[in-house]
């Protein structure tokens, strides 16, 4: 079987307001235990590998097997961190060992009267058989930001 080599680009921006101070939202990203509670844990999959190194040049890994489904692997490198202001990463995703995408993602933290406005912007390049997967990535990030909101209370 021949693999059709294709590329697709997808980008999106999501904004969420959380009724807690910027410092609390920031800690949900900067503290390993807190991040794992909304980003790396869940009932829909079993964790296989987790690494957390929150610093410029640091690398995060989250590999998990979805119950009854594929093995997903996320590897990110932090390219810019300004405390309480922004986080920028590049990251790659694999599904059952096949490289599916490379993305640049940013998180901006803004103090607003009601708490914190978090803005996530992302641009991904999707490879070969995953070239139509952009909308799924946005939906997945929506779910993560909801999980973050639940964690923040």
Describe this structure in words.
With 153 residues, the chain is an alpha+beta fold. The protein has one domain: Alpha-D-Glucose-1,6-Bisphosphate, Chain A, domain 4 (2-Layer Sandwich), CATH 3.30.530. It is built from 3 helices and 7 strands, in the order E-H-H-E-E-E-E-E-E-H. The chain has a 7-stranded antiparallel beta sheet with strand order 1-7-6-5-4-3-2, with helices on one face. Strand 4 and strand 5 form a beta hairpin. Helix 1 packs across helix 2 and helix 2 packs across helix 3. The longest helix is centred in the C-terminal third of the chain and has 19 residues.
Q: How many helical stretches?
A: 3
Mean pLDDT: 92
Biggest pleated sheet: 7 strands, antiparallel
- The low-confidence runs, each spanning 5 or more residues with pLDDT under 50, are none
Using the coordinates above, name the CATH class. Answer: Alpha Beta
Find the structural class using helix and strand composition. alpha+beta
When the domains are counted, the total is 1
In whole angstroms, the N-to-C terminal distance is 49 Å
Query: Which word captures the global form?
Result: globular
Strand content of the residues, in percent? over 45%
The value of Rg in angstroms is 16 Å
Amount of helix: 10-25%
Which CATH-level-2 architecture? 2-Layer Sandwich
CATH fold-level label: Alpha-D-Glucose-1,6-Bisphosphate, Chain A, domain 4
